[in-house]
Design brief:
Elements: E1 9-13, E2 18-25, H1 30-43, E3 49-59, H2 61-76, E4 81-84, H3 88-97, H4 99-102, E5 104-106
Parallel strand pairs: 2-3, 3-4, 4-5
Antiparallel strand pairs: 1-2
Length: 107
């Protein structure tokens, strides 16, 4: 499977409340991330929750909406969302979408 057609694969380490995402994070795959984050919010809505985007090949607007909603929910309950990503293109998109101001961005 080529990277362009590879779906997002999620790896969740609940102990560390860290979600590692790899592959394409787009409309077709965002449901899986949304379900994982919703379950984590139900378990501990005060966070922090870290989403590691270092191995993501592509991120679309749907993914940023899910991350922004998660960040808002966590902040409402006194927690925070941490986005870990060293890809300058994804970091730039975090800035453009406002995710950098709604969460902690680790580049």
């Amino acid at each position: 499977m080529t990277p362009a057609s590879r779906p997002a694969v999620l790896s969740v380490d609940v102990r560390d409340t860290r979600v590692t995402v790899s592959g394409r994070l787009d409309t077709a795959s965002i449901r899986a991330l949304r379900l994982v984050l919703m379950a984590m919010l139900e378990d501990d809505s005060t966070g922090p929750i870290t989403v590691d985007l270092d191995d993501v090949d592509f991120v679309d607007g749907a993914a940023f909406r899910v991350l922004l909603r998660t960040s808002r929910e966590l902040r409402r309950n006194g927690g925070n969302l941490v986005i870990a990503c060293s890809d300058p293109d994804v970091v730039r998109l975090c800035t453009i979408t406002g995710l950098d101001s709604a969460s902690d961005l680790l580049g």
